[in-house]
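Support request from a user on the community tier.

User writes: "When I paste my structure tokens into the form, the page sometimes reloads and wipes my input. The last time it worked, I copied everything first. Here is what I submitted, just in case something in the input itself triggers the reload:"
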């Protein structure tokens, strides 16, 4: 449906996160406020159509976010149900001092849905659009929520710009990376079913001592469950058929035979032909 040139992860052939490379050097009639510091970001710097990007204030050329920006949307099959709230997980790889800004627009480039951000985030509006961006100490990983429009508005494109900073407190020597993520409205036949599937019903943790992933999830009925683990390149590193779960709360463990490298992984549960995905941080003492 879309000319995607990068797929961050493909899960069981149905769940994917699609990024589209942007042209470099996108500029527009935006000016930089010389009073802005590293925690104050002016709106309209995502590289969306008609917008500038972070190179408006930071020297350098805008680069493709492929391999650097990893944006995970919690909705199954990259689909949204009107009025439902979803979680975004953003990791900017190979960086410890990073900033970002993102907006979500429909096919007419109008605001689509609303962001919900807590500590360390800022939400801004400009020309009828809404933006979420960092507002606190530089990090390389963020989690924030987005509520879908009250009614289906067709495909929604999220435009993301990240700034991989060199930490010298100046606007020179930084690298700007642009990405896009496109999600689609869920088919009408799925809306009722999907609206009862919450990613928040699935939680996990990693036990470094036993090299196991502990899974806790809520199932609506007794059905077969399969768990898979993928590295950040989309390669499957573990899989286990957990058998039939019980209706209600369930707990399982997934033993990893080969020691995982420290880093970020994606864990997916297939339950009754639905897919739940969570991000897992693997660390060893």
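"...and here is what came back when it finally went through:"
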């Amino acid at each position: 449906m879309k000319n995607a040139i990068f797929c961050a992860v493909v899960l069981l052939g149905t769940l994917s996160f699609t990024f589209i490379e942007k042209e470099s050097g996108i500029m527009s009639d935006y000016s930089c406020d010389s009073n802005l510091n590293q925690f104050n970001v002016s709106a309209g710097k995502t590289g969306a159509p008609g917008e500038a990007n972070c190179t408006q204030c930071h020297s350098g050329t805008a680069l493709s976010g492929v391999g650097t920006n990893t944006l995970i949307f919690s909705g199954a099959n990259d689909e949204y149900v009107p009025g439902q709230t979803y979680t975004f997980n953003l990791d900017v790889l190979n960086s410890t001092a990073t900033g970002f800004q993102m907006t979500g627009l429909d096919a007419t480039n109008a605001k689509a849905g609303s962001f919900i951000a807590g500590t360390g985030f800022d939400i801004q509006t400009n020309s009828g659009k809404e933006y979420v961006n960092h507002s606190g100490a530089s990090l390389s990983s963020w989690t924030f929520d987005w509520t879908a429009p009250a009614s289906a508005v067709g495909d929604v494109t999220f435009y993301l710009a990240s700034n991989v900073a060199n930490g010298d407190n100046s606007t020179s020597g930084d690298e700007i990376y642009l990405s896009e993520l496109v999600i689609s409205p869920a088919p009408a036949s799925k809306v009722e079913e999907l609206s009862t599937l919450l990613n928040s019903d699935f939680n996990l943790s990693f036990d470094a001592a036993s090299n196991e992933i502990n899974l806790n999830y809520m199932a609506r009925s007794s059905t077969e469950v399969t768990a898979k683990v993928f590295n950040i390149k989309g390669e499957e590193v573990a899989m286990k058929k957990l058998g039939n779960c019980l209706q209600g709360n369930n707990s399982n463990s997934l033993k990893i035979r080969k020691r995982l490298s420290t880093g970020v992984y994606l864990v997916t549960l297939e339950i009754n032909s639905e897919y739940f995905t969570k991000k897992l941080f693997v660390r060893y003492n």
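Agent notes: The reload is a front-end session timeout and is unrelated to the input. The CA atoms of residues 1 and 270 lie 24 Å apart. The two ends are 45 Å apart (CA to CA). Escalated to web team.
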